[in-house]
Amino acid sequence: MRISVIGCGYLGAVHAACMAKLGHEVVGIDVDERKISELQAGRAPFFEPGLPELLDEVLATGRLKFSSSMADANGADVHFLCVGTPQRKGEYAADLKYVDAAFASLLDSVEPGNVVVGKSTVPVGTASRLADELAERHPEAVLAWNPEFLREGFAVKDTLTPDRFVYGIPAGEAGEKATAALDEVYQTPLSMGTRRLTADYATAELVKAAANSFLATKISFINAMAEVCEVTGADVTILADAIGLDDRIGRKFLNAGVGFGGGCLPKDIRAFMARAGELGADQALTFLKEVDDINVRRRLRAVELTRDLVGGSLLGKRITVLGAAFKPNSDDVRDSPALSIAAQLQLQGADVTVTDPEAIEGARRRFPEIAYEADLTAAMSGADALLLLTEWDEYKNLTPEVAAKAVGSKNILDGRNVIDPATWRAAGWNYKGIGRP
Ligand code: UDX
Hints:
45% of the residues lie in helices and 14% in strands. It is of the alpha/beta class. The chain folds into two domains: 2-199, Rossmann fold (3-Layer(aba) Sandwich), CATH 3.40.50.720; 293-432, NAD(P)-binding Rossmann-like Domain (Rossmann fold). Strand 1 (2-6), helix 1 and strand 2 (25-29) form a beta-alpha-beta unit. The chain is globular and about 70 Å long. Uridine-5'-diphosphate-xylopyranose is lined by residues 148-152, 212, 215, 219, 253-255, 257, 259-262, 264-265, 326-327.
């Protein structure tokens, strides 16, 4: 099929490359010319494992190209809308300015019989509003909403072999047309047995909001248990293993630590609360405020634990933060717990150095006043405390002996509960984890 992908960020760039991999003829479009020239040259504008190799492979076939001109969407059968929906400044609600602008500009390229497919995470009700706008300009085109569930770090795999497809479609013939088009787009993964569910627009939009809310709730649940473990001397990691063995609960997303961050979970649960408020259903989601509060509290707790580790005062203490990205295998620092803790410590008078294998550039743009050091040993040099806040392999595999040679004092906070307390303590380290004795 001929496909256009509007928006080439974390979602769109991967989607465009994966659609070409599935055999389609794809144009990826973005207003950011720098991003487009990088992608066209086969360079991913962000760190995503497997994406550079995939870009090389599909660009060589000639099936994928990138452009900064919306006119290049002309001639596509299916147009995917993949632009961002960030949190509005000073509010909980999502900012739809990129969706609205991209959609308005795309309307000039839509032709009768085309299917416009929204993938961006939007407040419920957006799809039906856009469907009305589409119907007014192009009565013979159809809108579908096909939420994206990919995880950064696994984006290529999650796009090529997702857990499920959800199609939000209108009733009747138009819906059948949209379903047929999407089935053709996703023919390969569907033929491998990926489940596909169809629903009305509102349900499809809500599936995404509900899935992210559930994941955030799971993490905050275990972090709340960590708070209780801390005051009772219990160990949240063993607790998580034990409850996780119940397959109704499951062990995934039960890692206590400094909490969730990134470009999705935090802003999506806030946007969901804001939208429910507008719809008069705010009571239904008040628990998400608690989920958010528990999550924010983890960051404050990490600052307190660090203060304890270095003897009660942060003033002038050299703190080395291992990790800036919101999670490993990503260079994304949006709402990163690691970076937010580093900035708090710096504000409270500590002398903070942050290291990360991929995210230093983005972190420096966000918090230029913090010191950054790419070399792990140099970053740890003379530290009064190490804080492991993003569980990259190189930090998980760090040995207490190697770290001891670099630091000034053997203090470590394991903000992700990924190193073995017994090993580090046996090597003379003062170890603190989250929710474990
Ligand atoms: C998430 C959803 O997983 C994905 O389906 C959706 O499309 C977008 O949002 P992503 O933001 O890439 O994906 O990250 P994810 O792997 O879900 O992790 C989110 C955050 O939760 C990270 O900061 C991670 O460190 C944290 N986390 C995750 C925990 O603190 N504990 C856990 O047990 C799991």
